[in-house]
Amino acid sequence: MPSPSQALELENFLPYRLSILAQIVSESLHDLYAEPFGLTVTQWRVMAALGRFAPLTASDVGQRIVMDKVAVSRAVAGLMERGLVERATDRADRRRASLRLSARGRAMHARIVPIALGYEERLYKVLSAEERRSFDALTDRLFAHAGTLRQAGARTSRSALLDSEPPARSRS
Amino acid sequence: MPSPSQALELENFLPYRLSILAQIVSESLHDLYAEPFGLTVTQWRVMAALGRFAPLTASDVGQRIVMDKVAVSRAVAGLMERGLVERATDRADRRRASLRLSARGRAMHARIVPIALGYEERLYKVLSAEERRSFDALTDRLFAHAGTLRQAGARTSRSALLDSEPPARSRS
DNA sequence: CTGAATTAGTTTCAAATGTAACTATTATGC
DNA sequence: GCATAATAGTTACATTTGAAACTAATTCAG
């Protein structure tokens, strides 16, 4: 078996494959909540982050969902306009503001979660339970490894996601 | 084991995981070719498609790399300006134009391919050969299944990718 | 304390992207 | 053949997105 890799076979090229798989999945899911709830993908992710991890600052949200602070700021602005998110300025440090879902936001969140989980469930149906675990484990490792590869010579190094631990507050 | 899924754990939610994994991989790769070659992600994908599948029309390219014709048109315009791609109008059907890499384009392509494959190789190093095959097979199935799920109630149904067969020319 | 440096978050401006309209060419129905 | 429809591709406009500048508040050095 000579030269194992000389030609770039796009259809077998991992970055490309991941990209289109992620894209079709993300769009499919968006199709389910966009119209009934009027949320963009980023807005939904902010809501999901707040729904899961109680009060968070905008920066915390950004670290959670791998989104820069500008994107978070805009998504939050839109959500606050619609009364889905509440902001409370931190009295000790008035630069910060902790965010949480409002009652309306929680209600909407509660309606979307089953839709999202239902889609995931349908998608996963094509895999056996074991395959599913295997796939999760493999993506975890790929993700961690991709992060370390990126360190070597990258400007932005914001990583540490796929992680259920909070990102370690800078101050105690 | 009661209610197997009630809360949405973002960090374990497949669409989210796929999305950020694809994002970090795509960005890491882009870091490698963006600066030296001055290509956007879409331009590089067009070049990759042309590099692999000889002469293609703009529509063919779009089907190959899952990109709408406007995006292809713009990427091609940029590539032609730089003399990386050549266009030849089809004499039989003057709406069509077949695209191919120019000599310069082929030279650049030849320099980028090893970089791309090298990145893929480094990324895959975290998996054993068997895990790698397994991961590929699982993504294939997820992809195919995601496509069928999307059919049911989707406006755009452009699928059929991850496939090395050409997308069946409309005319013989 | 006072001034430089940090940090949280927003706003501004430019580039990228998507949708819809448009041009040019070919196919189809009658 | 001729009007209508369909197809390939581009252009125009409106929205989204990202990078950098900016505001406000806090920390840190001396």
UniProtKB/TrEMBL annotation, chains A, B:
Q: Does the keyword Transcription apply?
A: yes
Q: Which UniProt keywords apply?
A: DNA-binding, Transcription, Transcription regulation
Q: Which domain of life is it from?
A: Bacteria
Q: Does the keyword Glycoprotein apply?
A: no
Domain HTH marR-type: from-to ranges: 11-144
Could you tell me which InterPro entries the record lists for this protein? HTH_MarR-typ, Metal_resp_HTH_trans_reg, WH-like_DNA-bd_sf, WH_DNA-bd_sf
- Molecular function via GO: DNA binding; DNA-binding transcription factor activity
- The identity of this protein, by name, is MarR family transcriptional regulator
